[in-house]
Amino acid sequence: MRVVPRQRWQVDNGVAYLNPAAQGACRLPHPAVCPMVEHTDADRELEGVRRALAVRTRKAIDAGQFVPREAKDLDEEEVAEQHVVVQEGAERHIVRHSTGLWLAPTTVADLRCIALSQGERCATAVRAEDDPEGMWEEIDIPPVAGRHGQRVLAAGDTMWVYALGTSGFDALQRWVKQRCPVHWQNTAPDAVSAEWVHFNPLHHEAHILHRPPSDATVPLPRSGIDDRGPFGIVFEPPRTTCANERCRNGTVMTVEEGWLCYKCAPKARRREATHRAWQRNADIG
C-alpha cells in the first residue's frame, strides 16, 4: 500500500515525527484512516484501509465489543450558534479580542453592523476602511484533549486569526458590539443580536486558517524590525526577542543566545521533560 508523504510518520525513541521522505514501513495517524472522519480526495490511497476499518468497527459494535461515544447534548454555545444566520459554505474568520477567540459569521471584511437603520439592518461593515484596527497573526491552536483533539492538530498546531489587541478600548468595544463607526455611540437599537460565537477547535475546525488570507496585514518579520532611528542613531537599548518564532516578547537585558521569555520557557521545559520520559521508557523497553 502506498502512503501519501504527508501521512508518513515514524517513531524514534518514543517520539513520533512526520517524515515525508520515509521509505518502507511507516506509521499512520489515526485521523488519516478513521472511517468516522470526513476525508478529502487527496487521501484516496488510504480508502481501502478506511473501508476495512469501517467493516471491522461495525462488526465490533454488533458483537458488543466496542461501544461508540454517545452524542452529547448541545452546550450553550452550540445552541447560540443555531440562531446565527450563515450562508452554507461561507468563509468565516476567527477574531481575537481581549483574551477570547470568537468566530465571525463572515469574513472580517464582510462583517456587517447590526444596528437598525431606516427600518433595516445597517449595511456598513464593522471594520473601518481608513483604519483596519487589527492585524492578522499566527497563534497556537487551543489544546483539545482526546483523540478528537489529535484530529484537529493533524493539519498543523497553529492558526491565523484577526487580532484586535493593538486597537484602542473604544474600537475593541465597537467590535464586540458589532457596530460600524457611525452607529458605535448611536442610540439606534439592534436589528439582530450580535453574531459572535465562542471559537471551539472541535466544532469550528473547518474555519481554521493555516495560512493568512492573501490580502492580510501581518506583523513585520524579525529581520524587518529596526531599533535604530534616523541616521542610524540608536535611541533605545538593543532588544532581544524570544527565540520562539511565533512569540513577540522581548527584553533589553543581556541574555544568552536562544533566550526564551517567561511564557515560552515553561512550555519548553515541559516538552523537554516529556521527551526525556519517553527516552527513558524507550531505553527500558
Give the total of domains.
3
What's the helical proportion of residues? 10-25%
Strands, count? 11
What's the shape?
globular
Oligomer: single chain
What Rg is obtained from the alpha carbons, in whole angstroms? 24 Å
The structural class is alpha+beta
Report the uncertain regions: 222-235
How do the strands and helices of this protein lay out in sequence?
Layout: E1 9-12, E2 15-18, H1 30-33, H2 47-62, H3 76-81, E3 94-97, E4 100-103, E5 116-117, E6 120-121, E7 135-140, H4 146-153, E8 158-163, H5 169-176, E9 197-198, E10 240-241, E11 250-251, H6 264-284
Attribute tags:
single chain, 285 residues, alpha+beta, 3 domains, five-stranded mixed beta sheet, two-stranded antiparallel sheet, 6 helices, globular, DUF6083
Your description of this structure?
- This protein is of the alpha+beta class.
- The chain has 3 domains: 5-62, no CATH class; 76-207, no CATH class; 222-284, no CATH class.
- The chain is built from 6 helices and 11 strands.
- The strands form 4 sheets. Strands 7-8-3-4-9 form a 5-stranded mixed beta sheet.
- The protein is globular, with a radius of gyration of 24 Å.
- 15% of the residues are buried.
- Mean pLDDT is 77; it is low at 222-235.
